[in-house]
Amino acid sequence: MVNVAVFPAGTEIGLEINRALKYSTHIKLFGLSSIPDHSRCVYKNYSDEIPYYSDKSFIQKLNKFIEENRIDYIYPAHDDVQLFLTENANLIKAEIITSELDTVRLCRSKIKTYKYFSEFRFIPQFYNSNEIDKLGSIDFPIFIKPDIGQGSKGAIKLNSLEELKYAIQGNEKLVICEYLPGEEYTVDCFTDFKGKLRVCNIRNRIRIKSGISVNSKILKLDDEVSEIATIINDKLRLRGAWFFQLKKDKNGKYKLMEIAPRVSGTMGLSRNTGTNYPLLSIFDKMGTEIKIIKNSYDIEVDRALFSRFITNLNYDSIYIDLDDTLIIDNKVNNYLMMFVYQSLNQGKKIYLLTKHENDVYNTLEKYRISKNIFDKIFHLSKEEHKSNYIEDSNSIFIDDSFSERYDVSTKTKIAVFDSSEIESLIDWRL
Questions:
Q1: Which residues make beta-bridge pairs with 349?
Q2: Beta-carbon neighbour count of residue 252 at 10 Å?
Q3: Which of 41, 76, 206, 295 is most buried, with most CB under 10 Å away?
Q4: Residue 151 has what pLDDT?
Q5: Exposure b/e, 374-403, CB count within 10 A at least 16 = b
Q6: What are the residues facing 184 on neighbouring strands?
Q7: What is the spatial distance between Cα 426 and Cα 309, in angstroms, rounded to a whole number?
Q8: pLDDT tens digits, residue range 392-417?
């Protein structure tokens, strides 16, 4: 087992790395952040006491954490952090999961990237913002974006020379690019320590929010995209997971938007077909010869805000109702069962408290729910109050019936929940 720290853990990249590595028996995962963020809800081992990478004490405090926790590898989860860690790799007491410094530096600048690959037809027509003398020959509309940036921040479509001159005024760190009206794609890649391109998956970017692909499908790789990936891999010293983005021009030809030598937040789409990019990158860094499984089926990802909760609840026991709670519409409530097994893993006691009309044990067997899950089963008559059977004051109660919850809450003063509230009880760090 190796110890791997992700920084900053709360980015979309850091959250994907968590999803990719948290179940590996080969890795003990740590989430690091400079501020309390969403990573504290998903990383079992978490610290938000690492300063921003720009802080003078950053390397010193990071090394202290590395030594105290015996960290073997640091996984950068932000472009600027990756560049900083790669530049200072000799000062950091853990290995950085990254490509070579020259590659990381080049990819951080779109202008440098475009110039480096300018001989190839997949580079769009582009200008520096200080090349004002050439602006008169540009066909509008055009697109401007920061030379160093991510997530579509600062990217603007402009329709005239006047708009362009106004937009670039006083800003020399913009790249002016031909407008690409076609579809947009991300190509997720993996290059091993021998420099061999092992994986190349293209996916579309159907719906984008804040520069992040929130709806995407894996597509069949065509020869043109495969050729672009090979050229990039041959001309740069890449290692591990990386990706590049393409957009089609007005003639339907692929043009390069950017290259990033890191994990992308939507690489989970490929992960769910068998290609776990973050895990492959770890094994590759260890010099391990890897094999790759790639399942072949259609898959689509659709992402939206997902709520996770932090409470100060402290309880030893859980009392659960059966009808319309554990069993709803003749089906097992799988979300509640997830919570039940989480609670068993935590050593909590679970009691079934029901007024079920039929034989409880036969019903549990019908739905393949083991009676051994429960420390005790209370089978009540219709007239009895469930509150009379709650023996542990340090407990919670889950029931679909408001009247039952109200009675238990009033008489026992414990926290009560219906099925819609179970989400606040799930601990995603486990």
A1: 317
A2: 8
A3: 76
A4: 59
A5: beebbeeeeeeebbeebeeeebbbbbbbee
A6: 247
A7: 8
A8: 999 999 999 999 999 999 999 999 99
The DSSP code sequence of 294-326 is ---S--EEE-------------SEEEE-TBTTT
Place of tokens 């003639």: 251
- In the sheet with 27-32, reading across from the earlier edge strand, the strands are 45-47, 27-32, 2-7, 73-76, 95-96
Alpha helices in 323-393 (DSSP H): 334-345, 360-366
**Least confident among 131-135, 257-261, 276-280, 376-380:** 131-135
Residue 231 burial (10 A CB sphere; 0-12, 13-18, 19+): middle
| Domains with residue ranges and CATH for the chain | 2-98 (3.40.50.720), 125-178 (3.30.1490.20), 184-302 (3.30.470.20), 317-425 (3.40.50.1000)
Place of tokens 């957009």: 247
Phi, psi of 253 (to 5 degrees): -95, 145
Of the candidates 211, 213, 186, which has an alpha carbon nearest to the alpha carbon of residue 200? Answer: 186
Nearest to 12 by CA among 210, 195, 288: 210
